[in-house]
Design goal:
By secondary structure, this protein is of the alpha/beta class. It has one domain: Rossmann fold (3-Layer(aba) Sandwich). It has ten helices and nine strands. The protein has helices spanning 7-10, 59-62, 89-102, 116-126, 163-171, 183-190, 194-210, 213-218, 261-264, 266-281; strands at residues 2-5, 18-24, 27-34, 41-45, 67-71, 108-113, 131-137, 224-229, 250-254. It has a nine-stranded mixed β-sheet, sandwiched between helices. Helix 4 links the parallel strand 6 (108-113) and strand 7 (131-137). Helix 5 (163-171) crosses helix 6 (183-190). The chain is globular and about 50 Å long. The chain starts with a strand and ends with a helix.
């Protein structure tokens, strides 16, 4: 395990944050712990073709009361991008749980954005001892909620994607009005390999094909918050109501926001997460 200052990776002007690289199953997994070590833990899991940087605007809003851990899933960000390792959702979840074990986190509220919500669900399935509660942000409940689009994956001969392809791919990640696509988001895609990109997409699809998330979550007995930008252009926001099949689930639509509330309106997103986490601390 190594630790270093992560100021440059977080972006110009960002506060320095601790950066660690753990070796799990022979592959390097990068994570960023922030906030008081003795505070309740929040684990933040990014979506496909993203990284820990997607959460950067949220960190200063969450760390006054929580220990915030961000992780780069295998194939993303500063984690390894091997061709011989599994990108299955269950294996991504297993590595995530092992990473928390290694840094001494025994209980955490797990927050997943987009396909990161599938990893969060798989972690709760495999490690109910570790997961206090779950919060899913714009995570489609099943494949029938997917909004049909042109294929996002460029042909194998064209990798990394051109700037035009990147902007086309990323544009649906935000509300069509008033939100700039962060350059860091485009860099995260550029930093992937074609194998890690396509394997991640196929693994998420396979997990949802096997069983829809509300069906998986309903039997776990974990408190659940679902936040959904009302103007999501990747998943039908009306599908958020499918999560009401989970006993006690709280579902909140966010008007004016698209697929990425954590980047489009960090204060509003953080406020909802903190209110939910506070109810878990009081249990």
């Amino acid at each position: 395990m190594t630790a270093s200052d992560d100021r440059s990776y977080a972006g110009a002007g960002a506060a320095p944050t601790e950066s660690r690289v753990l070796t799990l199953d022979g592959d390097d997994i990068h994570l960023c712990p922030d906030g008081p070590r003795d505070a309740p833990a929040l684990l933040l899991i990014h979506g496909s073709a993203s990284s820990t940087r997607s959460w950067t605007p949220m960190v200063p809003l969450l760390t006054p009361t929580h220990r915030v851990i961000r992780i780069d899933l295998l194939g993303h960000g500063r984690s390894a991008k091997p061709t011989g390792s599994s990108y299955a959702i269950s294996d991504q979840a297993r590595r995530t749980g092992a990473a928390l074990d290694l840094i001494g986190v025994r209980r955490a509220v797990i927050v997943g954005h987009s396909s990161g919500g599938a990893v969060a669900t798989a972690l709760a399935e495999a490690r109910p001892d570790l997961v206090t509660a779950l919060a899913l942000i714009n995570t489609g409940p099943g494949l029938d909620a997917l909004i049909t689009q042109e294929s996002a994956a460029p042909a194998l001969a064209q990798w990394p994607p051109t700037d035009e392809q990147l902007h086309h791919m990323a544009s649906t990640g935000f509300s069509p009005v008033g939100h700039r696509i962060p350059e860091e988001l485009l860099d995260d895609v550029r930093g992937m390999t074609y194998h890690s990109f396509t394997s991640t997409m196929l693994s998420t699809r396979a997990y949802l094909e096997q069983r829809a998330l509300p069906d998986r979550l309903a039997v776990l007995g974990k408190p659940l918050l679902v936040l959904f930008g009302e103007d999501d252009r990747r998943w039908r926001s009306s599908s958020a109501s499918d999560y009401l099949a989970v006993p006690g689930a709280v579902v909140e639509l966010l008007p004016g926001l698209g697929h990425s509330p954590l980047l489009e309106d960090p204060p509003r997103t953080a406020a909802a997460l903190l209110a939910f986490a506070a109810t878990q601390a009081a249990r």
